[in-house]
Specification:
By secondary structure, this protein is mainly β. Helices cover 0% and strands 61% of the residues. The protein has no helices and four strands.
């Protein structure tokens, strides 16, 4: 089983919508696999649609190879 703990916020800055959150992935009974990831998304309306950019970052942690991951 997997438990995701998420905290975040969203706000508008002119025509942009900015979302930011942190997700902590918890593996009950296997704490050596737990890790955190930070995600931000910036988007704007274009006609009837939306265009956005998402960036996710997981800092160096032993269970994801001890290296930063973008």
């Amino acid at each position: 089983p997997l438990l995701d703990l998420v905290a975040g916020f969203s706000f508008e800055a002119g025509p942009l919508t900015i979302d930011a959150n942190a997700t902590y992935y918890v593996y009950p009974g296997a704490s050596g696999f737990n890790y955190i990831e930070f995600i931000t998304r910036t988007s704007t309306a274009v006609g009837k649609g939306e265009v956005g950019l998402t960036l996710a970052y997981a800092p160096s942690q032993a269970n994801i190879g001890s290296t930063d991951n973008f």
